[in-house]
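Protein 1 of 2
SEQ + STRUCT:
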Amino acid sequence: MIPGARGGRGTKVVAIMLAAALVLGGGALLFAAIGGSGDPYARYCDEVTDQQQALSEAVGLGPGAGLLAALPSFRDLADAAPSDLVDEWRVVLTRSEALADAVDAAGLDPATYDPSDNLPDDLDPDAVAMLTAAEAGLAGPQAAAALVGVQQQARDVCGTPLVVDGALDLVTGAGATRESESGPYCEEVRARQAALSRVLSSGGADALLRALPAFRALAAQSPGTLLSDWRLVVRRVAALRDALTAAGVEPSDWATYDPQDPPAGISAAQRAAVEQAATDLASATTEEALGVVQTVTTRVCGTSLVG
């Protein structure tokens, strides 16, 4: 149940989620080393040592070709991963394989692939959509956190890094929008930046609702890489606004809305609709979409959504 903003640890969930996504930074997963006989990390740490040279060489190939060159190493490491790393390696591997499949479907050379290059003008639209979706998946916070986690674990538990004299940051640049389609979007980002900063910095639970016009304008100019994420954000913010309106609650009153003590005249069905819309907006899926648009916007436009 998602309350409004009247006290309690569950209050202002939507505002807190937004702040976390729009001020997104890298995070590290913490792991505890397990020693002694029957060490469950022994096989994995041996694999880390075996793959160091190949991964170190892959880093030097750049964000696109390097990532694809690292896939065999990723597969071997994922296969040997201990239970507390299975999820992280699954994210890294499945999203990297999705990019490999997209590059192959587009007929591009994996040895020279660079996500910042313009695509051929005659490339099939379905191949472009597949490629940009795969790139956006690698640019998101879940993939970034997974990559940080597997590197931190190698250092903490195995006592050695995945990459010698460097960092495995092969997804840098993934999800980059091609210059030919980023211009109007970046202009809109800069035009909306000051207003978005004022609205979102207020920290109110209704901040997302007040930002809806700006979100719609950005979605309208969005390049293909970000279109599905922007549409998700707009759809879920609008759904909460519409549910509140249908219940006779002004969107500006969301900050003081209490589902335990709703205004008189709201039916049980209307209250349930409001709570469902708020739950959807505060979900991990929406947070992921917000993280993707922030991360990719910063890379493409050289500036963030919120100044």
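Protein 2 of 2
SEQ + STRUCT:
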Amino acid sequence: MHLYDDSSLSRGNPSKPFQLFYIMLSELTIKEFLEKTASGSPVPGGGSVAALSAALAASLTEMVARLTIGKKGYETVEDEMKAVAQEALKLKLKLVQSIDNDSNAYNDVMSAIGLPGNTEAEKSQRVKAIQSGLKKATLIPMSVAEDAARVMELAGKTVAKGNKNAITDGAVGVMMAKTAVLSALYNAKINLKTIKDKAFIDRTSKKVEELGKKALDREKELLSTVDLSTVDLHLK
């Protein structure tokens, strides 16, 4: 999420306090989440939606793996699919937490911006708090991108080795995960514009480029094996 424009960083003691939006987004129903996203509230924003997208991709991956376990003709990959299902579950739970972590990071930065800046000591403390908050708000989507990239690999395994009648579900998992990677990276990258730590910027920017390129390349590779001619249109 683009937290604010540069001008807001220089304001101390705002005449109108920043409104904070602490809410457990992960506890909302689907309809409530969609309505909250569509409202005038700044959260949930792109970062939380990226985490949700990755969690959905992990859920699809786990589903395909479980539809493979115990099925005739897939005995040789059963142990691998069990491992895929277990890891996808762990990633899903972590990504669900990231939905809230991203919105909470926004609130933390807004709180820092609202700190008093009347004295030199207050100004210094305010700047430190803002910069610390910005780094946190950048590292969270970076973590989401890394987790989503791992989900891509797991989903790719279900496409290559999982139940062929669920191959499109695995393929959607790959595509959703790729989108989550890129979405999270966009949110991290734009926050770098207001961070002052050059080493942090350089390190993170390099990782953004690497993860983004790999996600685009891996999607093509992982989906290259999709063959709908093998699908049995009967029940999975």
